[in-house]
């Protein structure tokens, strides 16, 4: 039986204070340049009070509702991914001594305890996938591991789904079911709180909690119910490998401008490239990795030129990998229904609609 | 935790110039413990790192039973391989591996082995030739088929000549364009299958080269009643991590670096020959 606690809105600052005392840098949602971003959060006053988004294909806007809620929005462009799979990081360094010998040395990220506040169901599902990719294979990734081990996750159940969201269809939301240390559901005067781990328990013990009443729990359930009203859907396993020669790829290829936004906002995309930064003295060199995208013309470069050369090729690679290849690689689709690739595509390409046209 | 991204220092024990733009590096890890625990299989590859320049995937062509030294035959094509060509015996480079799944040598025992390659010499298949010749009694007939665009492109002429003198070994070479002195066939390598001597129901075919060539060759082999499961293809894509993380080498649901580079035909036949995929 899960225990439901209640944390009053007026006591919420205690949670932030506690994180500081426990040595966490707190990352949380805030409004910046017209978007919800996740960045260093020092004070409750930075939270996006009363802000809500409208999202459509190629469209994202924030507006004020005047409500007291802090978490009544759907995700902006990024949330967790940059904190585990860094957009840019050094992997190792090599020094060449006078006799030409090479000395290789791993550069691990400095352990930094980070608490992320306001994580959504679609992003926790995406994190579980990234864990599977980077940690649970034959070659666990020490860089990702270092960041992941130092992550504390405070989830918030969604109460408002954007028009671009379809997590109900992928089965990943809006309710958070696992992967959190603490879980919050926002109601008028505070939060229904559930504990998901020993670390969460340790924090909760120090908070001014009350037992959540039946009414409070019912209200939380009701508010979450609102986020289940979603119009977009995605078939569980579209047979895209049978449709590689479908003429519709040309159609979407003609609209796509190959900017790669869809891949950089996607919480499950993991492609990266390795680059070399030799020092000017010629004796040492740093090896780095950077996010990369299958929309980058060099992504498929082999001697003699790239294998994939047109936006049609890029888009087909992206969609077939995300929705079909992933099933072979990870036993499930690579899409958690967050809708980001729809909102942040400058020309409003909507993967659910493209799949509809391909499978019609 | 072991860091699969980190190269290890290896010494160039020998360097052999095979052709104007092809050279072989014989390598050994400088850390004796690492070297002692090192192993590989034919068709697997290493990532070779040149100081300050970068890393490239290169097949291991020497015999797996003597892993104390390992050979890489490299063709100069671009940024990294060009710079690697300047390396000399006694120089040091970075190596990590061995990676991937190689040729099905255990399954091929007791059977005829048919090798079909295209392009300028196919390093991944050289490892198979060496492997079979070292253990001749364990295999049936060996058919080596190689196609080149122009007869001048053929490298290892002496090797082909030497191999063709061995018992139960058939060499079939074809060039699309030929010079007067060319003693072999003209045309496509896939057209030579009619001349190949092997038992279709007891042969393992191993293919390497341009995808279109492998696709046509697979089709011809199937027509000759070689089972699809007995046809193996070595695939190539851009590679950065070699451990299934970076995404560059994806081919449908497969990562060529870890699920390949060698695949049985049925695993990838639905993806072969799709332009731009
Ligand atoms: C499994 C495997 C085994 C290989 N075995 C051999 C071998 O035994 N001998 C040999 O001469 N070549 C081999 N190659 C091809 C060799 O890796 C490329 O020719 C080499 O990477 C080109 O690097 P470059 O920097 O000189 O060329 P550039 O064209 O300047 O390439 C720049 C980068 O692109 C990537 N890249 C380019 N071409 C390829 C390619 N064909 N495959 C993968 N990544 C590529 C690499 O990251 C490379 O560093 C193999 C490739 C693969 C995938
Ligand atoms: S594919 Fe689009 S909707 Fe699905 S997880 Fe990625 S960004 Fe979100
Ligand atoms: S689908 Fe849209 S977001 Fe993705 S690369 Fe094309 S134009 Fe950019
Ligand atoms: S080379 Fe990085 S995934 Fe295969």
UniProtKB/TrEMBL annotation, chain B:
Task: Tell me the ranges covered by the FAD-binding FR-type domain, including all copies.
Answer: 5-105
Q: Where is the signal peptide?
A: none
Name the CDD domains on file: sulfite_reductase_like
Highest taxon of the lineage: Bacteria
InterPro entries named in the record: Cyt_c3_hydrogenase_gsu, Dihydroorotate_DH_Fe-S-bd, FAD-bd_FR_type, FNR_nucleotide-bd, OxRdtase_FAD/NAD-bd, PyrK_electron_transfer, Riboflavin_synthase-like_b-brl
Its protein name is FAD/NAD(P)-binding protein
Taxonomic lineage is: Bacteria, Pseudomonadati, Pseudomonadota, Gammaproteobacteria, Thiotrichales
